[in-house]
Specification:
Layout lengths: L5 H6 L1 E4 L9 H28 L6 H29 L4 E3 H34 L4 H4 L2 H27 L7 E3 L6 H5 L7 H35 L3 H30 L7 H24 L3 H17 L1
Parallel strand pairs: 1-3
Antiparallel strand pairs: 1-2
Length: 314
């Protein structure tokens, strides 16, 4: 393996093309993405405030949802500010150190969200399959432990991937037709052996996706089996309604990931990949608060009270 040359690595730059091939749409895209980000911040911060204010929402499910909103807010902020900057500045270059920093935060929040969705699936499994033991199993201490595991697990693969990047040496400036710093972008300008880094990427990404999906799918397998055994139609509807929002969030999140990484890398698919990246990094974090709140009367009622207080104060 080639030892990294610090002088070369620090002078390497990425030039992000982003949506520069559509100069007539730069202002429109900036306003669109800025609006989405504002809604994202309002939705996630609002969800956190609602859960903290309303004592009826002091349950494990909303405790996990609060932390999911924190992760969504941080993830979208990590990506969106560079996306907006790329639309208004002429110099679209970014140093490799800044790119690595953005990537490290982004991958940490993505991995954390995967584990958080698995934890929420486990919570629904206990609530529906063992309702009488729910308060015993899902104590505040255990909930705090599960959230700690989610954040810790998000940091571990991020640290591993960053290490596999830092051991590379870089010897050329690279023009990238994207706006997000992704792992594969660090491999192309590298002039050292990439085999070890590619193996690390394959293991970390697949292990994390496989483990979290197994937990989610197994939890819902038992949930559906339990719901089918219920004799009361109203009981089945109530049990299923508690899972609908989470199922929708899981489907959109993992569906977008598989969509991005399963599309063949061709010139015709570049625009689709860019739109898919925007959807995954901007739209999904914005949509999650609405997915979880639209079906919950307590959340909607608390939102109304907050808005009424703002109107009265004004």
């Amino acid at each position: 393996m080639v030892s990294p040359d610090k002088n070369q690595s620090t002078t390497v730059m990425f030039i992000r093309l982003g949506f520069s091939e559509y100069p007539e749409l730069q202002v429109t895209l900036f306003l669109l993405f800025l609006s989405l980000y504002v809604v994202n911040v309002a939705g996630n911060v609002g969800m956190i405030m609602v859960i903290m204010i309303n004592r009826k929402l002091d349950t494990p499910m909303y405790f996990f949802l609060k932390h999911l909103s924190v992760v969504d807010f941080c993830y979208s902020t990590t990506i969106t500010h560079k996306l907006l900057e790329n639309l208004v500045v002429e110099d679209r270059s970014i140093s490799i150190n800044i790119c690595i920093t953005q990537f490290s935060f982004a991958v940490t929040f993505v991995m954390t969200e995967m584990v958080m969705l698995a934890v929420m699936a486990y919570d629904r499994f206990v609530a529906i399959c063992y309702p009488l033991l729910y308060t015993i199993y899902m104590t505040p201490q255990r909930c705090a432990l599960l959230v700690t595991v989610a954040y810790t697990w998000g940091v571990i693969p991020s640290t591993t991937l960053i290490y596999s990047i830092l051991i590379l040496s870089f010897c050329e400036t690279k023009i990238i037709d994207k706006f997000v710093c992704e792992y594969n972008l660090f491999l192309s300008p590298s002039c050292s052996d990439k085999h070890f880094s590619e193996i690390i990427l394959f293991i970390v990404v697949n292990l994390n996706a496989f483990c979290t999906l197994i937990i989610i799918l197994t939890s819902y397998l038992f949930i559906f089996a339990t719901i089918l055994k219920m004799h009361s139609a109203s009981g089945r509807n109530k049990a299923f309604s508690t899972c609908t929002s989470h199922l929708m969030a899981v489907t959109i999140f993992y569906g977008s990931i598989f969509f991005l990484y399963c599309i063949p890398n061709s010139k015709n698919s570049l625009l689709i990949l860019k739109v898919g990246s925007v959807f995954h990094t901007v739209v999904i974090p914005m949509a999650n608060p609405f997915i979880y709140s639209l079906r919950n009367n307590d959340v909607k009622e608390t939102f109304r009270k907050i808005m009424d207080l703002k109107i009265i104060s004004q």
